[in-house]
Amino acid sequence: MHLLLRVNRFIIRVFYVILQPQKDLYFMSETSTIVEENKKSLNFIETFVEKDLAEGKNGGRIQTRFPPEPNGYLHIGHAKAICMDFGIAQKYGGICNLRFDDTNPVKEDIEYVDSIMEDIQWLGFNWENVFYASDYFQQLWDFAVALIKNDKAYIDEQSAEEIARQKGTPTQAGINSSYRDRPIEESLTLFEKMNTGEIEEGKMVLRAKIDMASSNMHFRDPIIYRVINHPHHRTGTNWKAYPMYDFAHGESDYFEGVTHSICTLEFVVHRPLYDWFIDELKKTKPEDGDYRPHQYEFNRLNLTYTVMSKRKLLQLVQEGLVRGWDDPRMPTICGMRRRGYTPTAVKSFIDKIGYTKYDGTIDMALLEYSVREDLKPKATRVCAILDPIKLVITNYPEGQTETLVIENNPDDENAGTREVIFRRELYIERNDFMEDAPKDFFRLSKGGREVRLKGAYIIKCIDFKKDAQGEVTEVYCEYDADTKSGTAGGNRKVKSTINWVEINAALPAEIRLYDNLFTVEDPSSADADFRDLLNPNSLKVLENCRVEPVLANAKPFDNYQFLKIGYFTVDLDSKPGKLIFNRTVSLKDSRK
Ligand code: ATP
Ligand code: MG
Question: Which residue has the least CA distance to atom 15 on ligand 1?
Answer without folding.
Answer: 68
